[in-house]
Fold:
Amino acid sequence: MRATFAAFVPTPDHALLRALHRELRALELTEATEARARLVVLRERLAKSGVSAAERDALLAALDEVLTAERLRVPTSLADAYEDASLALGARLPRLRRVNVRRSLVHVAVGVAALVLLWLADPRTRLWTASCACASVWLLEGARRVSRRWRRRVDAALSATAHPFERHAVTSGTWYATSLCVLAWTTPVAHAAAAVAILAAADPSASYFGRRFGRHAIGRQRTLEGSIAFVATGTFAAGGALFLFGPVAWGLAFAMACAGALGELASVGRVDDNLSIPLAAGLAAHLVVNFFA
Structure:
């Protein structure tokens, strides 16, 4: 018990990894000369830190790879080394989410496919498809826990789109499928479609604008600019989804987008936003329709 408690007491090594996290997030947005100089200083501090030898050596090797490259970026080796060092310290340190265009495209494509299903399929087909997809991804999660071979296969299949921390946790794709299943069973089809549209469009939009233009932090790993982009994109996405099923209620679309943004803000370090965003949006639709309409 004492060791467990001690693992969550902040130490200089925790602060060092937090500083490294900030630099890695800003790496693609800063001038190369400035970013390289700050990373050199962090590398020198890391070499003298109390991080265990294996994790420290992996981080140093990955940083050397970055510092000697012509173009500064966060390679997979560095992202993986950061996550391993964070876990080794036993602290709840910020997760590293790299810019990943393929992940964003898959994110949108899954949302579009779900919208088409909600729009064209009959209720029984919607429920069966959502339930089977949810059961399948959770079976794969179980297989990852009990079989190293399956873990390697699943991680390899998701390597192009998954964040590094997902090697040690339930994948975002699993939470995505879970949220779609919950919406299919509990939410009217038009509201479920709007919630899916918010997740598919607003989440990537907030990530892009937050990284590119974010200057005012609100909470951990979120910016005011990203949240504004989330609400704006989410409102139009939800309005478009509602249009498929009847007249567009823009007030409802706006309320669902705001709830999704709050779900994203509340999810950092606690719940995956692929679960919290659509469920928060769906709950907002229920409250608006039943208590404020």
Notes: Confidence is low (pLDDT under 50) at residues 1-9.
